[in-house]
Structures are given as C-alpha cells and as structure tokens.
C-alpha cells in the first residue's frame, strides 16, 4: 500500500509556490482586463459626451444664425426699386455710402478684400449687387474698431471694406438696399448684418463673382 504524500516535502512546497504564482498571475490578468474595460468605457463615454456637446454647439449656432436672419436689424434703413444699369460715368447717389443703383460694369473685388484708400463707389455698388457686405468708416472711427472690422472682413468671403470720408457716421455697413450705422466693432448688429446679408435674400445676382474685378 502506497504511503500518503508528505505535505511538507520539497516537491509539495514547489507545487504550492507554483500554484500561488499562477493565482497571482490570474489576479493580475483580471485587474488588467478590468482596467482596460474601464478605460474603454471612459473613452466611449467621453466621445459620446464630447460628440453630444459638439452637436449641441452646432445646433445652438444654427439657431442663432436662423434668428439673426429672421430678425430685423435695429436701426437699419432700406431702399427699394434701385436701378441696376451699367454706366461709364460717375453716379450721383442719394445716400452715402451708396447701397444700390446704376453702377460700373466692373465690380470691386469683394472676396474678403480690405482697401485702405477710398474706392470708386460705382464699382463697390456692383459688388453689393453680387451679394457682398461693404464695411465703411471715416476719420472719426477708432483704430481698434477699424482693426477688428478688418479682421472680420478678411475672414468673410463676399465682403469688402474701405474708408469713405464723407459718410455721416464713423462705422457703417451696407448691402444692396440695406444700411446700418453701428456703435463699434463689437456691436451685435455687425454679426447679424453679415449673417443676414452676405449672399442674403436682398442680393440681385446671388452667386456672381467677387473676384476678377477691380483691385486697387
């Protein structure tokens, strides 16, 4: 009859150590899997939350733009039934800056173009016909406002900017048939006017070029 195994023998001690090592390894593997799963869940939750926030921001931006397009611009002046003939002579416009009427057959480039000297009004009016917003200022405008509006125009296709010394207010925005005086570059009406009238519904020739015209 075989004798019972001695639990205190060297072989038994080695088996116990091996089993303990395997137990610890399995425990480490379980912890590793839990950490990996937890990290994956955290990443997914972060992506979902981040994606949801981005969607929320996009929706809020769309809402604000829609509201800007559908709300009247406070203090805005409107002219209707403006002529659109091409002429080769100077035009005596009833408003300064002009917002429409007969104009040169060549438009001023208005693809985010900023002019530091006065430009021909007849060419600028043609740009308005193409759906551009024209930012103008006189000597009373502050340097800070001129700089801020310059950056706004430089980042906005279908817009242009130039000084108009004989305009009555320091800062004015014009589109075809539309015009408003703003108090500063940070006036909320600046963004609203751009949102509403850059290629807006007032445009007689939407989609017409703002490049390939006069550049000076």
TrEMBL record:
The keyword Transmembrane applies. Keywords: Membrane, Transmembrane, Transmembrane helix. The keyword Transmembrane applies. Residues 1-31 are annotated as: Disordered. Pfam families: DUF3105. It comes from the Bacteria. Residues 16-28 have a biased composition (Basic and acidic residues). InterPro entries: DUF3105. Residues 1-13 have a biased composition (Low complexity). The chain crosses the membrane at residues 34-56. This is DUF3105 domain-containing protein.
